[in-house]
Design brief:
Length: 202
């Protein structure tokens, strides 16, 4: 198993990120019901009754590959509103991917994603010393593509007929990345957006 990434918790002003455990099943089951997220055809988000299986799969990836899945918790209410993950870990080349990210509908397009990504990217570049962080999404997932671009990531390309989804259809995968020399500017942009969100929330 790749042990480069330790199980850490990360905390900001809006959210805290804590390593996923089976104890989060009930809270995640409630989160996926906010917007019936499992109905999205271009990504996989578990149905409420499949959350235990989803957690088991994530923990299996952690055991096999050193991946680390976080639940995203609102600090104001203590409510779990989503999940995100470090995976595709390459300790030799100091690269990783952030993905398997989803949020309850009520917090989408809010400060939650901005701060979550700021926490994950800060830890990756400043504590783990990565040289690149990658993001991938389905060609048809316009919301995800726009959200990744707003972070400051640049599109590297499109992998056509890259993967076969659960329904048997081939998906085109859009690849984005942030590299080490870009991180200071990306961080400044994310911090600015987060500050604006905090002002609006006053």
């Amino acid at each position: 198993m790749n042990t480069w990434i330790d199980r850490v918790s990360l905390a900001g002003e809006y959210v805290s990120l804590e390593p996923l455990t089976p104890a989060h099943e009930a809270e995640l089951s409630l989160a996926v019901q906010d917007g019936e997220l499992w109905r999205l055809w271009y990504t996989y988000i578990p149905r409420p009754e499949k959350v235990a299986e989803y957690i088991a799969d994530a923990l299996s990836m952690a055991e096999r590959e050193g991946a680390l899945t976080f639940v995203v918790r609102l600090k104001s209410s203590g409510q779990v509103v989503g999940c995100t993950r470090y995976f595709a870990i390459d300790a030799i080349n100091k690269r990783l991917e952030i993905g398997h990210t989803w949020y309850a509908k009520s917090v989408q397009r809010s400060a939650v994603n901005t701060e979550t990504k700021l926490l994950l990217l800060s830890h990756a570049f400043e504590s783990l010393g990565v040289i690149a962080v990658e993001f991938r999404t389905h060609w048809h997932n316009q919301a995800s593509r726009s959200a990744i671009a707003r972070l400051g990531a640049k599109q590297d390309g499109i992998l056509r007929s890259h993967q076969r989804s659960a329904d048997g259809l081939l998906r085109d995968t859009v690849v984005f990345s942030i590299i080490e020399c870009e991180w200071p500017v990306v961080k400044k942009g994310l911090s600015y957006k987060l500050g604006r969100a905090m002002e609006k929330g006053k």
